Amino acid sequence: MDIEELIDDVISREGGYSDHPADRGGPTRWGITQAVARTDGYSGDMRDFPRERAAALYARLYWSRPRFDTVAKVAPRIAAELFDTGVNMGPKVATTFLQRALNALNRNARDYPDIAVDGVLGPQTSAALSTFLRVRAPRGETVLLKAIEALQGERYVDLAERRPANEAFLYGWLANRIGEPNG
Fold first, then answer.
1. At what angle do helices 76-89 and 91-104 cross, to 10 degrees?
2. At 163, is the secondary structure helix, strand, or coil?
3. Could you read off the pLDDT of 7-25 as tens digits, one per residue?
4. Do 85 and 97 share a structural domain?
5. Could you list the residue range(s) of the whole structural domain that residue 6 is in?
6. Which residue, of 41, 64, 87, is where some domain finishes?
7. Which residues contact 22 (CB under 8 A, 6 or more apart)?
8. Peptidoglycan binding domain: which residues (predicted)?
9. Residue pLDDT, tens place only, 69-88
């Protein structure tokens, strides 16, 4: 799946305009919050926020900037998951899930050294990912994907437990985000 398909999937899942009273993100359109749109210079009503602008923001802020495009070259399903998780929770959170999973799966640093869990996809994280995929081929990407999704699911439950208003979203998060867009 290429980035245009991933963006189309996210936009279709996120839908058009929303301003749910329990959503701390406030008014959103195409899944882009008003705060993100304003930071990008958009000053209009979010009901009118253009789809093309949302797509450009997704490509820049949630694919290129966090370097998920580099992950796609070695692990396309992981990259798709990081993108989708990054859209919903922020790219740094998605990257920390990857880093935590890589550290937990390195067999006490026998396969590669532990990496900093800093939410930055730098050379050490990239090297750890490449080594993991090589050492754990052919199933490594599938297992790593499961670990990332487990961390994501745990965070959703935690968010709902800590803030009961988030229970309004928990079912949808689990139904539409865990296992998506990777099936």
1. 130
2. coil
3. 999 999 988 999 999 998 8
4. yes
5. 1-64
6. 64
7. 165, 166, 168, 169
8. 94-177
9. 999 999 999 999 999 999 99
